[in-house]
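Researcher: Here's a chain I'd like modeled. Treat it as a single chain, no partners, no ligands.
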Amino acid sequence: MVCAGIENREGKTFIGPSVLLSSPQFSSILLNSPQFFSVFLSSSQFSSVLLSSPQFSSVLFSSPQFSSIFLSSPQFSSVLLNSPQFSSVLLNAPQFSSVLLSSPQFSSVLLSFPQFFSVLLSSPQFSSVPLSSSQFFSVLLSSSLLSSVLLTSALFTSVLLSSPQFSSVLLSSPQFSSILLSSPQFSSVLLSSPQFSSVLLSFPPRSGPLARRL
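Model: Modeled as a single isolated chain. Structure tokens:
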């Protein structure tokens, strides 16, 4: 078998990240290997090489194993979500909204991670990527964890409500009134938020009793 790679000083050839990640066997063998998470994710080279590799998002995110293995791995929350590259690479990847947000494991795995809010909500990409994604509302807002976790999170009011996309996207979402307004936490968290009056009340209602009243 012929494989491309880079020769070191001893003249030995090793497979580079561009060859390994673009290999058809990558998703079927590497992702199925127990060592992938224990060695690769804990390696100092993981964040600098794998996450910065163009092939990472195109191969790993499009792999059938991503949702079944990657998201269900205990290492995902402890290593990947704690990685500085998570917000800059993962959230900027085109596959994030199409694969990760549409994954059945998103609500059950990602949303149950304590790191989800501390990393994702505090990320500069939060307002530009997930909020503009059509999957964000269909998955996140329909999650049972929305009222118990998201609305009680301090980051929700400080980041989400202060986001420019809040009034244009979240308030115009069909799920907002049916789920968010019917949540027990709505009055205690949202109404007590300083951002509520400045953002929500400044949103021009399109129709309904409130529009006629104003």
